[in-house]
């Protein structure tokens, strides 16, 4: 397993982490993802640790806290061997303070996560989304206090816009507060918007990308083919709107799948392995969160490391997944001499 520094910090993390969105199966959204119990989760953790993958990502809203509880049970007795990343900000109750990134919310949310996980510290704590109501100074001041208290080692954010992240980094620098070292963001061969502004920002400010949904909401698992109906087990058939992710033009999807199939024949690797390996070659990527409902899926995803696509294969995938940029990014590409893109 390859390890990389998490952004500009001295903390090294494996290039893959196991996501726990499939743990618990509570509620319609997470039930569609999976319903892994403690015994199954323990087995997956065993396989991960044997492979050198020792980082596990979760959140307080995954199955109403069940995912954190199951992960806590699965790592019991070996906390010192693992890296835990979890998230908070989304609504966890009916009250007016059961959502957001206020001091009131964050202190309670971190303590609750620690209790469910059965640990006294979180290696990486991330805000699940931006809170535009709470002052950024209050958010970062609270996170700084939690770091100083030893409850959190490093902080990150998730799903921020470029200005959200840059404003936060500026406030941290101005007041000498702990900085975000990671940004958990969506990025895949069928969703390359991360490259437009967030990647250049991350390069400039040394923020590591922790990639979620690297297979594009299940579109790049190898089960979807041109001219064939969606598999009945696909997340894309879920009645929960968010579970289907952003809409993608069919032709773009099938162009990417066609290119993946070509590279698969050349390399002898599976389509998911190629899609993950492509991400591992991109600037700023520190870690990719893989999801697995079972041991077979996990072992296949683990096969994405230990080798690299050729420059020609990367170029083929780049070309197949390219889309029209929106303003001002298409305009900026016209002045590449002074404003070079992070990737071609």
- The averaged pLDDT comes out at 93
Question: How big a fraction of the residues is strand?
Answer: 5-15%
| Ends distance | 28 Å
CATH fold node name: TIM Barrel
Percent helix range = 25-40%
CATH class: Alpha Beta
N to C succession of SSEs: EEEHHEHEHEHEHEHEHHEHHH
Radius of gyration: 20 Å
Shape: globular
Going by CATH, the architecture would be: Alpha-Beta Barrel
Indicate the low-confidence ranges by residue numbers.
none
List keywords for this structure.
single chain; 344 residues; alpha/beta; TIM Barrel; 12 helices; 15% strand
Can you describe this structure?
- The protein has 12 helices and 10 strands.
- With 344 residues, it is α/β, with parallel strands linked by helices.
- An 8-stranded parallel barrel has the order 3-4-5-6-7-8-9-10, surrounded by 6 helices. Strands 1-2 form a two-stranded antiparallel ribbon.
- The relative contact order is 0.13.
- The mean pLDDT is 93.
What is this structure, in a nutshell?
The chain has 344 residues and is of the alpha/beta class. It is built from twelve helices and ten strands. It has a single domain, classed as TIM Barrel, CATH 3.20.20.100.
List the helices and strands and how they pair.
Elements: E1 3-5, E2 12-14, E3 16-19, H1 27-33, H2 38-51, E4 55-57, H3 66-74, E5 83-88, H4 103-117, E6 122-127, H5 136-148, E7 152-158, H6 162-175, E8 180-186, H7 198-205, E9 208-212, H8 250-267, H9 271-280, E10 285-290, H10 295-302, H11 311-321, H12 329-332
Parallel strand pairs: 3-4, 3-10, 4-5, 5-6, 6-7, 7-8, 8-9, 9-10
Antiparallel strand pairs: 1-2
